[in-house]
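User: Sequence in, structure out. Go.
Assistant: Echoing your sequence, followed by the structure tokens.
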Amino acid sequence: MFLGFHEHSIDSKGRLVLPARFRAELGDEPVATMGFERCVEIYPASTWREVLERYSSLPSSRKASRDLIRMLCSSAVELSVDEQGRVLLPSHLREHAMLEGKVAVIGAGVKVEVWNLEVWRNYREETYGRLSDILEEVSALEIR
């Protein structure tokens, strides 16, 4: 499970040093794709296969299902982790998430997300302000 927040930088070549605590679980060839909130999602390869299977089970007769699969798969790329723990994020993913300079690398359960640091800070602040409303909306979650 991926937990926590790390502030890192993307260098001029588009490389990101993955936090040490995330590297082992991500493995040598994680998969990155566009995130729904203008971030980049990075999955261990085995988890990506599970996610893809779930999305592939959506009804192909629905345009929304086809659109979702196309967007996620066409933007997905297998990453290689070098000896320094860096991955090269392709330009299309960096552009999608507006990544340059300082970034937020966050643990998000089964995946890692990479955000533009300012976008992350704004998102976090706005979301904290709505947290009690969000908990009420998530009907599957019961806190006792």
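User: And one key feature?
Assistant: The mean pLDDT is 93.
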